[in-house]
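Hi,

I'm pasting everything inline rather than attaching a file, because the server keeps stripping attachments. The sequence lines come first, and each chain or strand is labelled.
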Amino acid sequence: MELTERRKRALGPAYELFYETPAHLVRGQGVWLWDADGRKYLDCYNNVASVGHCHPDVVAALAGQAATLNTHTRYLHENVIELSEKIASKMPGDLSVCMFVCTGTEANDLATRIARTVTGHKGMLASEFSYHGNSTLVYTLSTADSDERPDWLALFEAPCSYHLAFEGKNLLDGYVGSVRNAIGDLQNRGQQPAAIIIDSIFDCPGTIEAPPGYFPQVFKTVRDAGGLVIVDEVQAGYCRTGNHWWGFQHDSAVPDIVTLGKPMGGGHPLAGVVTTPDIAARFAASSDYFNTFGGNPVSAAVGKAVIDVIDAEGVLENVTRVGAHTRAGLQQLKNQYDIIGDVRGRGLFLSVELVKDRDSKVPAASTARKMADLMKDEGVLISTHGRYENTLKIRPPMVFSKENADQLLAALDVCLGRL
Amino acid sequence: MELTERRKRALGPAYELFYETPAHLVRGQGVWLWDADGRKYLDCYNNVASVGHCHPDVVAALAGQAATLNTHTRYLHENVIELSEKIASKMPGDLSVCMFVCTGTEANDLATRIARTVTGHKGMLASEFSYHGNSTLVYTLSTADSDERPDWLALFEAPCSYHLAFEGKNLLDGYVGSVRNAIGDLQNRGQQPAAIIIDSIFDCPGTIEAPPGYFPQVFKTVRDAGGLVIVDEVQAGYCRTGNHWWGFQHDSAVPDIVTLGKPMGGGHPLAGVVTTPDIAARFAASSDYFNTFGGNPVSAAVGKAVIDVIDAEGVLENVTRVGAHTRAGLQQLKNQYDIIGDVRGRGLFLSVELVKDRDSKVPAASTARKMADLMKDEGVLISTHGRYENTLKIRPPMVFSKENADQLLAALDVCLGRL
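And the predicted assembly:
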């Protein structure tokens, strides 16, 4: 039986595949992927392979620890402690306590549980068209996918400077006001905010960067109403945005809880929640926590190796430098092609929004999908996302070089020319 | 700084450790674990290391695939398909569609989401003193830990034949009646059952085996009320109970949804949901599903290797044989020591309940904790659990030999003699 057909039978129809003709990948190394026919692709999509596919140090850490011991956190082991200390050393302020889980979903679910336990409130604030994961709770916070709107949930607009949600207000006032209104919505329903859950770059609506001053004002607004601030760094963390380890560091405010995921294990299921000793103690006063696999010696060894590679290979500096180069190249393409309405993002977390017309900004969603397929034919893997499904999503492994960026930009040029 | 102190700082106080003097383990092989001082322990606790610690085939599959490719299920890859087909080949009836996640928690959360989507109901039935995981939703279904009792949740009594929940009724009528009453409770609150979530051996209350006929009657009762049956095999699955691959196969009824976890990756974060093509299709009609790490090529390679080892090494037959031998030995100890009130379980999923007095059945909880510490001093790792915290939990890696069992039984004899 053909592979796609066998897959449909084995996994059921809820599983989707990328591309009109699915990619059947068999090998990866650094920024490169190969398919079953031996075709080589430049990977400009997979942020999970954060330090490159199959990085030898990460593989060695995984294989070495798996051959030695793999238990859980109810026995003492150095690895989970050292991983926690390494993460804390990359965090500002008082964010020094780590709790380990296996997925970004579990991290955001646990962060919500902690915020609710600590505040005694149930209300949550999430942005329009967000994605935070897929547990029953977190799926409800993933407003792009779920249409459930329980009374404890209120939505605010992500601070998009391209599609303005407000007229006649300046950007900051309009969007901070949206958070204030959401808190008011909760309170009108008799709910108080436990927390806001917020991306440091809003990924799902199409890579939206907050204007300067937005996060400090939003954090203060939520805290004044008795809520905590959960920043979701599952996408943006681990140097992805350049210049800083964490996306929220592009502004001056420090969250109460930070959630980590995708890049953390370079592909291994590893995620975490980072908070302050005070919040950790207040949570522990009424609840213990155990995750069978979370923070086990193997997962922790992998987590340590990823951080060590980032430090040893100057990955943060690379993201800053190559990210700026890539973004400048995308801007250049915008000057050439009217279909590009906007270029957004920081570091190697970049998006290109396609529109039918620059004045009306009507989304060119089918063209975006077509671009992803054309790019694949050119040997470059990207994908699409965004509130209007019209945005090219560019998030390569962070060991992406200037030369890789030039290949991406040249392929985009070719494919945009073919539209 | 001392390791325990560093750990407390790094992970916060919500993390607990086993034993009065925590075990600092550094190496594992088969059924053996070694601590930092070079002391060797017989592992009679860790079911996650299902085919033994650091099984070379499992480590090789992990290391080999991690060095080759690790992406996700939005590209085609053989491994996830082959893993699903292997699991389906071990399942009875129509249970042929697998969806992959990273933890038992995620599996039970997704199973609940599927049941709710497919039935259009919200109500859930869970047993008293259950544990199904720790997402916000699943924690609520974990009635041993959570004290939240939302209107969509109704509880039934696990069919314990030692501590009877009913007087003047036969076992089956009493306990099936408890499920019927729980459905009535839901309906009185205007809720209809989406599903029952039920262990095939009730783990958390202290390894309770259902009497013959219980599962068929319970499944029918729930289905008659419009609900689905989710059997949680996170603990009992993968040959753990002997004679059969799955715990529910000790009786004749087949569930609608089965959840898998702990033993599935031999320590690697791998879990899953198995259901019928019909239910999978009805779920997919209104929802897609994607889990970043779930079913990735590395996780799936590990999952395949575990099944292959079970088949190649005759692990199921070993569990059946050594489990019966161990249980007989525990019964023998019961004849010698009055403190043993009951011996329960199947295969290598065994429990010994300690009581102060056989007539009154008053739980000997502090003695059970002391026994775990004494056993550790004797070089044998066990733990405690149970509704009254007075039950010794014995769940070794499934490659446990008759000789290993005799060492366990001898150590129990020594420690019981010292009480």
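Chain B touches chain A through 95 residues (CB under 8 Å).

If the labels don't parse on your end, tell me and I'll reformat.
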